[in-house]
Automatic annotation (TrEMBL), chains A, B:
Residues 115-130, 252-263 have a biased composition (Acidic residues). This is TetR/AcrR family transcriptional regulator. GO terms for molecular function: DNA-binding transcription factor activity; transcription cis-regulatory region binding. Residues 35-54 bind DNA. Residues 102-130, 234-280 are annotated as: Disordered. Keywords: DNA-binding, Repressor, Transcription, Transcription regulation. It comes from the Archaea. Transmembrane segments: none annotated. Coiled coil: none annotated. The keyword Repressor applies. Residues 12-72 form the HTH tetR-type domain. Signal peptide: none annotated.
Length: 280, 280
């Protein structure tokens, strides 16, 4: 956008290094109080050399949001899964917490790993990461609150949102085609709904400090009962606890989905995992 | 909280007037840039007389959030409806946009009503009110982003959130008892889910300028298919368009809810109303 992300600076500082410094400065100072000096302090560059790339804090932040878009879309751009329902739940989990979900997925796929990406941070490696993630979400919410004032911020936020909605829409469309998602589901409406839930979780994390993943169970119930096609052989309980999949297979059967306790039972029985994996 | 909301000041300014001035100053200046002088400028009081009540901007804002809680809970504290499902949808509509929903509901039920005693009260029409509502939501999102820094703000935000969740929980519990909501629905999970959606809609309104009510259809589908009890004679399409209720009766029947197009058809056919009434 500014050209800064694809060229090295004459003074030897790389735009990548500036982006890292911006991230750290945002975590430490938040958006409103952030100065170019704060960002310089987080790098080994002078404020003058920052100004070599960016005239204003706003311009630097725009480049940062651009950089963030690339990192985010790289992180969650492809979603593996047995079927569209699996991919949808995995995608939402990762969007809600890209870094930690990645950690968790890695821990889950390596049997020797004992850590699971929890928030409490008693492990040596991820307590700091979690704090940093919360701090960054806080700065991001401040930037969202600038939406009505800084049109260019809003455009970057819309870009991320469009990416999330496109991915959901495309996964849902695939699911309809493969027969795992009901043919009467509207991919656009579903995408808007999921994007709104994600924004809600992220806002609550900052505003209320809510990181208990309490929404995940209900999201899974929504997927199970609103999206899964009758008769589809899919498990709506994924991402980090594959060993339990056999118990969770709902079949999406019409009568099962509405008149027995198993469906909710399986959602409720899932508390431990949801609390661990939802959005904290 | 500060005692300011229930006593008149020695200089004749009423706390109520200060709250009104705070509301207007927040709409105009946002939270981050707000000064005591800005608030004084919106009232006919001096900055010194504001300080008679409140030592700091933060203290004043806390009293304002307290005042807001009272106004909000007065506005949406009771929800009429034929049954719990009706009340739930009506409650969510009003929480998403208390002022405008009230306008719309009153306009719908009393063709002669043109004014509604809303907070701002200076305009007979609602174009200005809508702008003001957006501005206020922006300031509120800034305050939410202060959650990690100002514990007392977070406590006030939690109070509002607890109220919303309590109401949803209680309506859902009533619905289970009266048989309109499935007995396997968890009132707590539902409350958390609804509160998260509400936060998402409010964040998107500010960050992205999204006011198209696009989530409402999918919320109604969620209510219809996840919450409504099999065989319950309720209409999941309410609030402002009662004339159409007969068309919307889903019966909550198991096969109807999962294998025909009528359910989605009725949700989709509702675009005009949802766009008008959802959250813009």
């Amino acid at each position: 956008m500014t050209g800064a992300t694809d060229s090295a600076a004459a003074d030897g500082s790389t735009p990548e290094a500036i982006m890292g410094a911006t991230y750290r400065a945002l975590c430490e100072h938040g958006y409103a109080d952030l100065t170019m000096q704060d960002i310089a302090d987080e790098s080994d560059k002078s404020k003058a050399s920052l100004h070599y790339h960016f005239d204003t804090k706003e311009e630097l932040l725009l480049a940062f949001l651009d950089h963030l878009y690339d990192a985010f879309t790289d992180d969650v751009g492809t979603t593996d899964g047995d079927d569209a329902v699996d991919r949808l739940v995995t995608f939402v989990d990762r969007v809600l917490c890209p870094a930690e979900r990645t950690d968790e997925a890695r821990a889950g796929s390596r049997p020797d790993a004992t850590s699971d990406g929890e928030t409490d941070g008693d492990e040596p490696n991820d307590g700091g990461e979690t704090d940093e993630f919360e701090e960054f979400q806080t700065a991001l919410l401040e930037i969202k609150a600038q939406g009505p004032y800084v049109e260019a911020y809003r455009e970057q936020l819309e870009r991320v949102d469009a990416f999330v909605r496109d991915r959901v829409r495309s996964i849902v469309a695939d699911g309809i085609e493969e027969g795992t998602i009901r043919s009467d589901v509207d991919p656009d409406d579903t995408a808007a709904f999921v994007a709104t839930l994600v924004d809600g979780v992220n806002t609550r994390r900052v505003a209320l400090g809510e990181t208990d993943g309490s929404v995940r169970n209900t999201f899974l119930a929504y997927v199970r009962e609103n999206l899964v096609a009758p008769g589809a052989d899919v498990a709506v309980d994924l991402g980090g606890d594959p060993g339990n999949d056999a118990d969770r297979d709902t079949d999406g059967d019409a009568t099962e989905a509405t008149d027995d306790d198993d469906v909710t039972g399986s959602a409720d029985g899932d508390d431990g995992r949801a609390a661990a994996g939802g959005d904290d």
